[in-house]
Write a structure and sequence with these properties.
The chain has 256 residues and is mainly alpha-helical. It folds into two domains: 212 residues, no CATH class; 40 residues. Helix content is 79%, strand content 0%. The N and C termini lie far apart (101 Å).
């Protein structure tokens, strides 16, 4: 019975995290009301919940506003890009669906494919913005490649979002709006911490067992290794010749 009321119980810890996500969701909603601050507030939500899930931050609300303040300037531009590009892609899909003919059908298919790739990219872009210092264009490029490389995790995060939307709007469980997007980011935080941890270790200079991109070898490193191997071979081949020359010199000296 005492274990049931133990605050270290996994059930109570899970409930506590949900309460944190609810509070942070309210902070995110309020800070997103001006619309232009959408990017900074969404990044702050990711930052605070990723820290909270990893038990790296006790003052999660303070972490939210810390990130919001630090990323406000760049976040305005990022948020506007996300909203405008998303709106254009949705409009394109709807517009071309009304156009008859094979050609417009192909155009519609391309628009839908771009929208899918865009949604996949968005699963990472705000987390990268919150945890790394990069230019906006670089954020989108890195987020895109992460979404492809970790396609399984990407699909899972999209499923989390779709499930919450389905429960709220199609099953009419409106109370879930209170936690809403905070619940999505809370679930995503477990995935994002797992995926991004190797990159965070590299960025902080910590030793890691394996480079997450070790499957690619820079050309410079390959060239250096090749030169080192060739040098070693030449040295090994030249060593006997050098020994013979030294012996001949000694014989000459003795004869003199």
């Amino acid at each position: 019975m005492s274990k049931m009321f133990d605050m270290n119980n996994p059930v109570w810890q899970f409930i506590g995290k949900l309460v944190d996500a609810t509070v942070l969701n309210i902070c995110w909603f309020v800070c997103s009301l001006p619309i232009v601050t959408f990017g900074a507030s969404t990044a702050a939500l990711h930052y605070a919940l990723m820290k909270d899930v990893a038990d790296e931050e006790t003052h999660y609300v303070r972490a939210f506003f810390k990130s919001f303040k630090q990323n406000l300037k760049q976040g305005i531009g990022l948020g506007l890009i996300v909203l405008v590009v998303g709106a254009l892609l949705v409009f394109a899909c709807r517009f071309y669906s009304t156009m008859p003919g094979t050609f417009w059908g192909i155009v519609r298919g391309v628009a839908i494919a771009c929208l899918i790739l865009y949604v996949m990219t968005l699963q990472y872009v705000f987390a990268l913005f919150a945890r790394f210092d990069n230019k906006t264009s670089k954020l989108f490029v890195n987020a895109f490649f992460l979404s492809i490389r970790h396609i399984g995790w990407t699909v899972l995060m999209i499923f989390f979002f779709a499930a919450v939307v389905f429960v709220i709007f199609f099953m009419n469980f409106l109370p879930l709006i209170l936690i809403g997007y905070g619940l999505v980011v809370y679930l995503n935080a477990y995935v994002l911490n797992h995926v991004l941890q190797p990159y965070l270790d590299l960025a902080s200079g910590n030793d890691v067992n394996e480079d997450p991109d070790s499957w690619t070898i820079p050309e410079d490193e390959t060239a250096e290794e090749t030169v080192s191997e060739e040098t070693a071979v030449l040295t090994a081949e030249e060593a006997p010749a050098a020994e013979e020359a030294a012996e001949e010199a000694e014989d000459t000296t003795e004869r003199d």
